[in-house]
Amino acid sequence: MNHITMKQLPDDERPYEKCLKCGAGVLSDAELLAVILRTGAKGMTSVELAREILSFPKPQPGLSGLYHLSASALCDIKGVGKVKAVQIQCITELSRRIAKSVASEGNTFTSAQAIADYYMEDFRHLQQERVFLLSFDTKGELLSEKTISVGTVNQSCVSPREIFLEALSCRAVYVILLHNHPSGNPQPSPEDRLLTMRVHESGKLLEIPLMDHIILGDRRYFSFREEGFIK
C-alpha cells in the first residue's frame, strides 16, 4: 500500500488548514503536536509521528507525559531527532511558564488556593518529593523561596532547625511549607503530619509561625490550615 502524504490529505484533515479555518481548539492533541513538529518522518506524516510520541511509554499518558521525557528519551522514538526533541521540550516548558504566568496575575499569596495555583505547574510533574520553604515579611510579601529537601519526607533530613535557620537569615515574620506528592494524591501521610507538628511547635517557640503546610498533587492540593490542623 502506498503511503499517503500530508499534501494528499483533504484540507479538513490537515492540521494547519483546520486551525486556520476553525481555530486551534478543534485540533486533537496529536494534531496540535504535529503543527509544532512541522514535518513527519520517513513513512509517517507529522500527525502519525505525533501519535507515536504521545503513545510512547512514559510515567503519565498523553500530553502531560511529555514533561517526563528527556531529550535522549525522545530521541529513542522512531522519527524523532535532536531538533524535534528540542522542539518538544521547549513547548512543554513554554506551557508550564504560561500556566504559571496566568496564575501569578494578581496573586498576593493570601490563600492556600492562590499559592497552590502559582506553584502547581512547577511541582505536579516532579518524580520526587520536594520540600519548599516560603518566607514572608510583615506585609505578607514573599522574601525567599528555597528547596529544603528532595526525596520522600520520611527519608529526607527535613529538620525544623534547617527551616528556621533559613527563615531567620531572611528576617521572615512567618513561613509556609510546600511540597508535592508525585502520586498525584495530596492527602497527607503520617510523616507529613509529624513534620507539620514539629515545625509548627518550633515556630511558636521562635515566634516565626508556620502559617500553613500545603501539599500539591495533580491539580489538587491539601492545606493543613484549611483542614484545621494549623490554627
Automatic annotation (TrEMBL):
Keyword Phosphoprotein: no
Key words, A-Z: Hydrolase, Metal-binding, Metalloprotease, Protease, Zinc
GO biological process: proteolysis
Superkingdom field: Bacteria
Residues of the MPN domain: 108-230
A molecular function GO annotation: metallopeptidase activity
Family recorded in the similarity comment: Belongs to the UPF0758 family.
NCBIfam families the UniProt entry points to: PRK00024.1, radc
Classification via PANTHER family: DNA REPAIR PROTEIN RADC, UPF0758 PROTEIN YEES-RELATED
Identification of the protein by name: DNA repair protein RadC
